[in-house]
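Chain A, query sequence.
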Amino acid sequence: MAILQHTLGILLRPNTEWEVIRNEKNSFIQVFVSHIPFLALIPAICAYIGVTQVGWAVGGGSVVKLTPASAASLCALTYVALLTGVYLLGEFINWMSKTYGVLGDDAKRHYESTALAVYVSTPTFIAGFAMLYPHLWFVAGTIGLAAVYSVYLIYQGIPILMNISKEQAFMYATSVVTVGLVLMVSTLIATVVIWGMGIGPVYVN
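Chain A, predicted structure.
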């Protein structure tokens, strides 16, 4: 399967894999649909299992768990947020591509931009397995390390995938990282708003 091939490739041999991805003849829709809906299931499903079956403790207190219905609704919202976040990141990357000298027709640039968003997100989706054991520092540490690797992939992948100079690629990559941070903060704000509307966690008594 291409999804498994590229997932392993981007983790183990990113230099070579970026070249392979660049030379593929796919559309931006194909690269998105063939990867993200499946990868985004990892954190969503693992989080559901973790918060309903394992639980977590705060400050050495008793173990806290969520009700299945509450966990299901929150994980479904998380799944939608992940899909939306990667899609918007790809659109922003595409929007900025002409500014940083990316050549090719619109369809090719759109594919490359979406592919970048998809594959740099891969480590953080894989890190979603940590949610099976939903203790704060373990999850934060695992996802934090994955995010650092994702940033590395952005800086490494843009000059190869977009076929631009390292000088242009550095500024482009920095802009992409900035957009990614803005999207993350926006998601957190949206979460707070949703919880304020009453769609928050319900704990097991």
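The two ends are 44 Å apart (CA to CA). The chain has a mean pLDDT of 88.
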